[in-house]
Automatic annotation (TrEMBL):
PANTHER family: 50S RIBOSOMAL PROTEIN L33, CHLOROPLASTIC, LARGE RIBOSOMAL SUBUNIT PROTEIN BL33B. The keyword ATP-binding does not apply. This is Large ribosomal subunit protein bL33. The gene is rpmG. Belongs to the bacterial ribosomal protein bL33 family. Keywords: Ribonucleoprotein, Ribosomal protein. The lineage of its organism: Bacteria, Bacillati, Bacillota, Bacilli, Bacillales. Gene3D superfamilies: Ribosomal protein L33 (2.20.28.120). One of its GO terms (cellular component) is ribosome. Pfam families: Ribosomal_L33.
Length: 48
């Protein structure tokens, strides 16, 4: 089981999603997801 992380929109900074991340990968997770605040698909990055 991985580590639970929050994903935040790069445009409006709202935290919309959570994801499980493999603990052995040090780089930050980046996924293109739908942001309900922006109303479009944007890049979401892992936050601390």
């Amino acid at each position: 089981m991985g580590k639970k992380v929050a994903l935040a929109c790069t445009e409006c900074q709202s935290r919309n999603y959570t994801a499980n991340k493999n603990a052995s990968r040090p780089e930050r997770l980046e996924v293109k997801k739908y942001c309900k605040t922006c109303g479009k698909h944007t890049l979401h990055r892992e936050t601390k």
